[in-house]
Amino acid sequence: MHAVAPIQITKAQQEQYREEGYFILESVIPEEHLRLLRDCCQASIERVNAKMDAQGVVKLGINLRDNRYFCGFPSNDDPQLREFYFSPLMAEICKATIGGTAYYFWEQYVVKAAEKGMTFSWHQDSGYCRDVPGHPPYVTCWCALDDMSEANGTAYILPYGRAGSRELKEHVHDPRTNDLIGYHGEDPGVPVLAPAGSIAVFSSFTFHRSGFNRTNGWRRVYLAQYSPIPMASPEGKLMGRAEPFLKDGELVAKA
């Protein structure tokens, strides 16, 4: 696979990230990487379905067959994904957001099936990292594998100014959905309306949610997250991964 040339994150986008917690890069994922992400997504779904078949169930963890899928760390089975999440494109995003030191922290597919797929409540990604108190915000790269619209359940982002805060808030557990909810206001947020191959870049302190997929097609997203420090509890228990990606602004990871 060919090396991917880095993009230029503008000063205006960096300023928007600092002031409002996000920016959107339209159509930046190279076609060969977009094919790779889609192919590995299908392989991940098939692996989950095979496990369900083996156990005679239609629900496995928070995966629900032909409805929604959360496939964590797919590169364990498809290591070629490293070509993308350790690419110069992702390096530029990290340098523009969390700085010149970055660790590969988390990756997963989030898939909503046609005319199915549950909504997700307002939350900050760091709301799920309560075992790492006081951690600095990390960055989420929400990579659209399909054209994103309000009809197919795109993400909605709540800018800091409209959330009334840029701090990590307390989240409450919803036993009905197992969601953690941290914002209870009426603001609908800003929908991510972008073509396939786009990336919504937002801080782990930025509130976001997603809607219901009302279309007849899949809504597929690949999430790549990078942290400025290893995410470890006070006892030293590591959350996610902590593979070095950037050091002093230079790539140190090997795809």
CATH topology: the name is Jelly Rolls
How would you name the oligomeric state of the polypeptide chains in this document?
single chain
What distance lies between the first and last C-alpha atoms, to the nearest angstrom?
11 Å
Mean model confidence by pLDDT: 92
**What structural class should be given to the helix and strand makeup?**
alpha+beta
Q: Class, according to the CATH hierarchy?
A: Mainly Beta
The portion of residues forming beta strands comes to: 25-35%
Domain count: 1
**Radius of gyration over alpha carbons?**
17 Å
Could you give a quick summary of the protein structure above?
Helix content is 21%, strand content 28%. By secondary structure, the protein is of the alpha+beta class.
Account of the 3D structure:
The chain has 255 residues and is of the alpha+beta class. The protein contains 5 helices and 16 strands. It has one domain (13-247): Jelly Rolls. It has helices at 11-20, 31-55, 82-85, 88-97, 160-163; strands at 22-25, 59-60, 63-64, 68-72, 102-112, 120-123, 139-144, 155-158, 172-174, 179-181, 190-191, 199-203, 207-210, 219-227, 243-247, 250-251. Strands 1, 4, 5, 7, 12, 14, 15 and 16 form an 8-stranded antiparallel β-sheet that branches. Strands 6-13-8-11 form a 4-stranded antiparallel β-sheet. A two-stranded antiparallel ribbon has the order 2-3.
List the helices and strands and how they pair.
Layout lengths: L10 H10 L1 E4 L5 H25 L3 E2 L2 E2 L3 E5 L9 H4 L2 H10 L4 E11 L7 E4 L15 E6 L10 E4 L1 H4 L8 E3 L4 E3 L8 E2 L7 E5 L3 E4 L8 E9 L15 E5 L2 E2 L4
Antiparallel strand pairs: 1-12, 2-3, 4-5, 5-14, 5-15, 6-13, 7-12, 7-14, 8-11, 8-13, 9-10, 15-16
